[in-house]
């Protein structure tokens, strides 16, 4: 931070009002206030990226508020690349800011697709009442915002940097909880390994509405303390041993 302050004068970028806080991922978040905040944030991110381009321990990210949708009523000739280009052109954003999933059959011989883009772009398309892609007029169905989820243990309520679980599930499918494939290719029934390990109903994907916030060691320590025998020693368990270590 000291190097950034000395080599990137904010006044040169027209930035006079900043606020710093720790993000939930553990990184340092710089918030820029005032007029043209978005443009100034882009300039600052560019300068910092150039400054630290040789540093493997520093990563500069320009956070963007995004919205997720399901785009429906697309004919079978429409491709993911066409959708991405149409969204970027209509919303006037770079292609890199648009994310599109695989097209899936929806019924009636038409397809649907998952779509994520910056909020201003999404609002523009919503006001249009849909998105024209080729001969198809796709309808947008807004999706609920995703909850904070750890990509290491798959539980909700925290991120990888704050994860206290002794179990690493980062190589498992988010939908069925098994190894060897990703959710995008999964055809199995939903099964949450986090809830299953806690003896809770698990007929949903990891991070779904049925999941309660959980961070391994906190709950495990409480459970171990509740079963302390009269001798005062704690029965050995994976989580309890991690706490002791």
TrEMBL record:
SUPFAM superfamilies: Retrovirus zinc finger-like domains. The keyword ATP-binding does not apply. It comes from the Eukaryota. Pfam families: zf-CCHC. Keywords: Metal-binding, Zinc, Zinc-finger. Residues 172-187 form the CCHC-type domain. The keyword Protein biosynthesis does not apply. One of its GO terms (molecular function) is zinc ion binding. This is Gag-Pol polyprotein. It comes from Trachymyrmex septentrionalis.
């Amino acid at each position: 931070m000291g190097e950034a302050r000395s080599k990137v004068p904010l006044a040169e970028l027209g930035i006079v009002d900043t606020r710093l806080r720790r993000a939930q991922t553990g990184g340092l978040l710089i918030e820029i206030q005032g007029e043209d905040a978005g443009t100034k944030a882009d300039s600052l991110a560019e300068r910092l990226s150039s400054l630290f381009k040789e540093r493997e321990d520093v990563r500069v990210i320009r956070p963007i508020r995004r919205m997720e949708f399901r785009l429906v009523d697309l004919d079978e000739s429409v491709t993911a690349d066409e959708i991405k280009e149409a969204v970027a052109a209509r919303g006037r954003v770079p292609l890199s800011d648009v994310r599109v999933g695989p097209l899936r059959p929806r019924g009636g011989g038409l397809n649907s697709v998952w779509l994520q883009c910056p909020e201003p772009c999404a609002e523009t398309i919503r006001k249009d009442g849909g998105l024209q892609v080729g001969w198809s007029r796709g309808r947008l169905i807004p999706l609920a915002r995703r909850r904070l989820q750890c990509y290491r243990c798959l539980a909700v309520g925290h991120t990888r940097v704050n994860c206290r679980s002794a179990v690493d599930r980062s190589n498992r499918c988010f939908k069925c909880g098994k190894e060897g494939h990703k959710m995008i290719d999964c055809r199995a029934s939903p099964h949450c390994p986090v809830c299953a390990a806690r003896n809770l109903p698990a007929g949903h994907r990891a991070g779904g509405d049925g999941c309660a916030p959980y961070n391994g060691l906190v709950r495990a320590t409480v459970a171990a303390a509740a079963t302390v025998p009269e001798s005062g020693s704690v029965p050995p368990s994976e989580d309890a041993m991690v706490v002791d270590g």
